[in-house]
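Handoff note, outgoing to incoming analyst
You'll be picking up this chain. Sequence as last confirmed:
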Amino acid sequence: MKSTRATQEPAWVRYTLLGLGLGFLFFFLGLPLVAVFVEAFAQGWPAYAEALKEPETASAIWLTVVIALAVLPFNIVFGVAAAWAIAKFDFRGKSLLITLIDLPFAVSPVVAGLIFILLFGSQGWFGGWLSANEIKIIFAVPGMILATLFITFPFIARELIPLMQAQGKDEEEAAVSLGATGWQMFRRVTLPNIKWGLLYGVILSNARAMGEFGAVSVVSGHIRGETNTLPLHVEILYNEYNAVGAFAAASILALLALVTLVAKTIVEWRMRKETEMLTADLPAEKTS
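Most recent structure output, in case you need it:
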């Protein structure tokens, strides 16, 4: 009884903490989100729809989707490969690899964009060769893809590394001992075990890719209708005092955020359910 009471706070403490948490969420998440949609529809649905039909807005939406889809396969391949190498093998330089994976979290996106300018800009290290071969990276879509890739590549790896370390490598070793090839082992053993963690990382990576501003802003050149993603287009419209257009474009990003939040919640629920099922099956397996 004493230990139970020691872990219970008075009712007023619980309600105070709950009120503070809900108040913080309302003022810093709910209220701004509502304000975006209120401003977007301030002049009615026709003005909102007309703002989204603008060629530059449509181009920004399309470019945002294209960049997110372009970086996703690279993030999946790198994330799975890096997590597999770190979780399943011991090798020299393992700690360095983990540190490099975390590098985009420590470097400002603007600095990352400047790095690509230094490498591929007209006065950069490879700028002369790129110009001679008429290859344009900076102030073009390839540079925006590279910048987005740099910012987003840790997400999938960071979700899979602790998951694969917790699972261990006993099942893979058993599959190999039974004659499975590397591809069969990955497809039938590893992939089913990491599918929800992989999907969770994909959701986070895709959300960051669509909302990235700093690094993309540096390398894009802000060419309207060509190299403006949706976040960049929102800034331009707002600076031009086009409030309806800016908030209409921002509402698309807000909807993407809400969809991401719902998908993230569903995946977390599925992961938790599978973990509970595996935990519940362990005693039965041991007794048998």
